[in-house]
Amino acid sequence: MDRDGFWELVEAACARVGDVDGVPEALTDLLRGRPLAELVAFHEMQDELFDRDAYRWDLWAAAYVINGGASDDGFAYFLGWLMAQGRARWEATLADPDSLADVIEVDTGDLDCEAMLYVAPHAAEDEDTFWTALPDKGENLPPGPAGEYFDFEDEVRLRRLLPRLTAIFYDEDQP
Predict the structure, then answer these.
(1) What is the pTM of this model?
(2) Distance CA 83, CA 136 (A)
């Protein structure tokens, strides 16, 4: 499955529901009944988008600011939320993580969607068969997030990197 095919499915799921919480179920429904190879290809494309495109310190910093912290799992769930927004928001955020300030508010709550990570296996006739069919990534995993590591507790650096998001989430009590 290529990127365009992947995003066409995500966009079709987005069009079926009114909010991000319904996207994983709608996407699972769209995938259900497809051949195992297609489900595996969908999952592999999702992993590629996460591992190769979005596994970056600057994006993780945005998740940290918005959600008041972001563990490894928390960051993955944030990426699930971002993916469930559709291709345009995904690409805009990857181009500029601070652009999330255009679409969220301080009282939004945690931005996460763990269910988005499991749409392909949940669509499979047999989840065990699905997981067994996935190729071993082996040494193809990224060694760590792209970009330069920094301590997320370094508020000065966060403010330079994400000025609009930090203004929303760190300065909420200011007039």
Answers:
(1) 0.92
(2) 23
Q: Provide the residue ranges of all domains of the chain, joining segments of one domain with +.
A: 3-133+150-170
CA dihedral (121, 84, 114, 112) in degrees, to 10, reads 180
Quote the radius of gyration of the chain (alpha carbons, Å).
17
Burial 25-40 (b: 16+ CB within 10 A, else e): ebbbebbeebebeebb
Strand pairing partners for 156? Answer: none
Q: How far apart are CA 68 and CA 63, in angstroms?
A: 8
Query: For every one of its 175 residues, what pLDDT tens digit does the chain have, with 9 covering 90 and above?
Result: 999 999 999 999 999 997 889 999 999 999 999 999 999 999 999 999 999 999 999 999 999 999 999 999 999 999 999 999 999 999 999 999 999 999 887 777 789 999 999 999 999 999 999 999 998 876 666 778 999 888 999 999 999 999 999 999 888 554 4
